[in-house]
Amino acid sequence: MPTTTGRAQGVRERARAEMRTEILDAARRQLAETGAAALSLRAVARELGMASSAVYRYFENRDALLTALIIEAYDSLGDAAQAADTAQPRTDVLGRWRQICGAVRGWALENPALYALVYGSPVPGYAAPEATIGPGTRVSRLLTDLLRDSVTRRSLASTDALPLTPQAAEGLAPLVEFMGPPMTTDHALRGLMAWTWLFGAVSFELFGQLNGVISPERRTDVFDAQVLRAAGQLGLAPEQDA
Questions:
Q1: With the C-alpha atoms ordered 177, 170, 134, 99, is the resulting torsion angle positive or negative?
Q2: Closest of 42, 40, 50, 46 to residue 19, by C-alpha
Q3: Which residue among 30, 79, 91, 215 is least enclosed by CB atoms within 10 Å?
Q4: 3-class SS at 91?
Q5: pTM of this prediction exceeds 0.85
Q6: Between the CA of residue 128 and those of 68, 172, 180, what are the distances in Å?
Q7: What span, in angstroms and rounded, lies between the C-alpha atoms of 222 and 204?
């Protein structure tokens, strides 16, 4: 049976976890109201009726709070995209692509402040630490897996692209390394196109660049059409027999 000391420690840990959650919830509300650049531990403390010094026991400064919010945002987005991907058969790369794209857009529309935090303008004076890299690359790794599965199954269609220049191939080398074998510079370029197109399309919609360009009630239809057209440009073929 747990000792009295062990039970007390467990109670303290739960209380600390609950308070940390309350602080993050308040910070997310502040993000939605004032934006990331104006995020303040003192304002969070005021909302919660706490002394500023109490908040600093959980987050040593604004940057630590921002980092926690960024990691949570990336992981929440990654969870949504992962769930959409795993709901499709592994052989159906086109279906997986469509579901991942829809999940990213859906998450962004439901969480505009968090999307703006991780894909909007950089926060002045903030430099994201290494701890954000893993969560921040979850969607790009899903897209890499899509392409790798197509390559492995020999179902990645030719796109009749012009050959890469040596300079472009050299520039893509870090991405080839990130994607890992058996990916080539051509596959890396396709992956880069998938990543930048997807988040570019979502950002354009979320940040208002489509206002007056696409009817609001038809934006989902236009997005879906773009997803399919992009799939053709990427060479993602329909589901193949095992």
A1: negative
A2: 50
A3: 215
A4: coil
A5: yes
A6: 10, 23, 25
A7: 13
